[in-house]
Model the fold of this input.
Amino acid sequence: MTAGIRLLGFVLPLIFVGLAGALYSPAPMDDSDADDIALSTLPALPGWATASLPDFTTYGDTTEKKAAFFSFLYPRIVLANARILIQRQYLMALSQKEELTAEELRWLEQQSERLRVDAAPGSAEMFDMLARRLDAIPPSLILAQAANESAWGTSRFARSGNNLFGQWCFSEGCGLVPESRVQGASHEVASFQAPYQSIRSYIQNLNRHPAYHGLRTTREQLRQGGSNVTGHALAQGLISYSERGAEYVEEIRSMIRYNNLAYYDKQYRGKVGDGADPSTLMELSTTSEADLLTSRGTLAKAGKEG
Done:
């Protein structure tokens, strides 16, 4: 074997890991919901958010399995988005203040570190960048990707690690080692305490990774133009999520259309509105799982076989 071939064999796995960086996820979170920076207006997570993933392999009927999958994930998506919007409200309030306290500046610095914003603390640039990254993701996009990446909650990583999106981690023992991992690679597929944490980590990934700058720009433009932020519109920003590129984007959009997932975006907008009412967001962050669910009949419609 020539030196060149040996070098190629060493470099290729590293290139593979680099290209897959869009799937990078931080180490799994614990009960403290460490993804959320401490804030007095942010309530504790409700107990139901820590429930593990149900066994979706027991469903023989595809329509019933899809309906069960959507009804389990949707309340957790609303919860995650509501908590993000509470923090976004606080961010907007701080942006209107002439002078910030040391505690407020510390919160901004922590958010900047978490969301990978490099700007002077309290500057207009920091507020602008944080406003683009501290925002919600439409339920239809999350549902479609979760179904696609986890085989409707039946994949090994979903069942054993509550991982619905294939997020990676890079600390030994942080997750499950993929059977197809190439020699020389060190990544694992992250394990989470509960599916809620997987959803929260996925949203954070879209909100901060450079690969999804286009998704965030589209979301901002829709917001500023007074248009609805939909999963179908933001899906174009997933061009780097998979090596399949545009083909993957179309597959996600097709899943949104065929499974009527736009319905969940509509229901979500009905609950959240423009995300500016504190009492609504607090209620959504503390209410029961059942109160966040849509009607059984519509769930069946949204989960039609496809």
User: Anything to note?
Assistant: The first helix runs from residue 3 to 19. Strands lie at 168-169, 175-176, 188-190. The two ends are 49 Å apart (CA to CA). The mean pLDDT is 85.
